[in-house]
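Q: what sequence does this backbone want?
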């Protein structure tokens, strides 16, 4: 049986004159693009340009909603209510959908960003708020969330198609959560180690946890962080390794 995996990338994360990442080149290698919607990064011109480029290259377009935190790049925890989380998710999806329509394509998926993603992975009320916003906007959208998280559970409970996400360059705690940035082992910078971890997650459904031991996981989509300096070289290496292992690559 041919195995299948999606390669997703967070992109469109520049703002004004500030550019981040090598989005255009990465769009030749990934199969899904999570595009910033203006809250943690991105602006109308960046969103329009990134969506149009993704559409031209046949890459699935998705919204990447975040907490309203440009200065903190959406990575700082904020006390938001479920109602606020639902509203900010709807608002950002609506913005991206406008650019998708203008580019002659449609939005295919939604993946929360940064702190909002991590909060919804553990808080059932926030998870339900985000999942309900996605369903209300378009029940055909794929909801992307951390494998085994509350967000995946909430999406499935509402009948959404969900894609369980794993990370090529992030450490994993024994409970399945991502190792917090700033702690030892949070970021995996060794390219060959990261590739080996991805192959094991895709082929065996297992990942090594921080502190030792394995965790059983489901991998529908692998995240490549577009803001990482070596993102382009890593994406190329990962595509080669997946092809060599007989793994087909495409949107979930």
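A:
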């Amino acid at each position: 049986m041919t195995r299948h995996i999606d390669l997703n990338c967070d992109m469109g994360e520049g703002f004004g004159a500030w550019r981040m990442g090598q989005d255009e080149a990465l769009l030749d290698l990934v199969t899904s693009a999570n595009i910033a919607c203006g809250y943690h990064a991105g602006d109308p011109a960046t969103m329009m340009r990134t969506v149009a480029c993704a559409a031209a290259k046949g890459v699935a377009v998705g919204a990447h909603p975040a907490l309203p935190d440009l200065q903190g790049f959406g990575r700082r925890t904020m006390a938001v209510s479920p109602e606020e989380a639902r509203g900010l998710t709807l608002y950002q999806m609506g913005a991206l959908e406008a650019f998708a329509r203008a580019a002659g394509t449609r939005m295919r998926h939604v993946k929360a960003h940064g702190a909002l993603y991590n909060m919804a992975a553990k808080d059932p009320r926030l998870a339900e708020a985000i999942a309900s916003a996605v369903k209300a906007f378009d029940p055909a959208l794929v909801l992307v969330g951390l494998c085994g998280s509350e967000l995946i559970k909430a999406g499935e409970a509402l009948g959404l198609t969900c894609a369980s996400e794993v990370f090529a360059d992030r450490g994993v705690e024994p409970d399945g959560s991502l190792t917090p940035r700033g702690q030892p082992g949070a970021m995996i910078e060794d390219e060959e180690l990261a590739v080996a971890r991805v192959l094991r997650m895709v082929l065996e459904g297992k990942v090594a946890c921080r502190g030792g031991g394995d965790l059983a996981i489901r991998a529908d989509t692998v995240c490549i962080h577009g803001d990482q300096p070596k993102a382009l070289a890593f994406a190329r290496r990962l595509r080669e390794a997946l092809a060599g292992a007989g793994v087909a690559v495409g949107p979930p």
